[in-house]
Design brief:
PH-domain like, single chain, 40% helix, 4-stranded antiparallel beta sheet, alpha+beta, 3-stranded antiparallel beta sheet
């Protein structure tokens, strides 16, 4: 078996954010507001990186790798540390580009923590992780 990659679902709000950033970038460039144009160009690079590289990889060795681009540090979870997964709607800061998310509650170093992801097919993502955790526990 191989690694399984799930890409992030992208909502209209993220596309709107990118459109506003691009419009302002063009506007500031046109009006010769150099510092503002440079700052918005950096923001645009981050937005594009997150758009292209936000994904969730379930690895062969029972880990979940969460990637959000080259500039944002990724996270890796042991699938066996996952205690539960819930569907939520949230605008909180997370490695998710949609408000329809899967909240993962996991235990690390004796305490519970949680994070949110937004795979395109949440049902398949949840069932894949459940299948992998059952297989690892056998």
């Amino acid at each position: 078996m191989m690694n399984r990659t799930f890409h992030s679902k992208v909502d209209g709000w993220y596309w709107s954010l990118m459109a506003v950033t691009a419009f302002l970038l063009f506007d500031f460039f046109w009006l010769h507001y150099t510092l503002l144009a440079v700052l918005l160009a950096i923001c645009m690079i981050f937005e594009i990186e997150m758009l292209v590289h936000t994904r969730y990889v379930v690895t062969e060795d029972g880990m979940l790798r969460i990637e959000s681009g080259r500039f944002v540090p990724g996270r890796t979870l042991d699938l066996n540390s996952i205690e539960m997964m819930n569907r939520v709607k949230s605008f909180s800061i997370a490695p998710a580009l949609s408000v329809k998310r899967v909240e993962i509650v996991y235990r690390v170093a004796g305490k519970d923590d949680k994070l949110q992801v937004s795979p395109v097919d949440a049902d398949e993502f949840i069932s894949w992780i459940q299948k992998k955790t059952r297989k690892n526990n056998e």
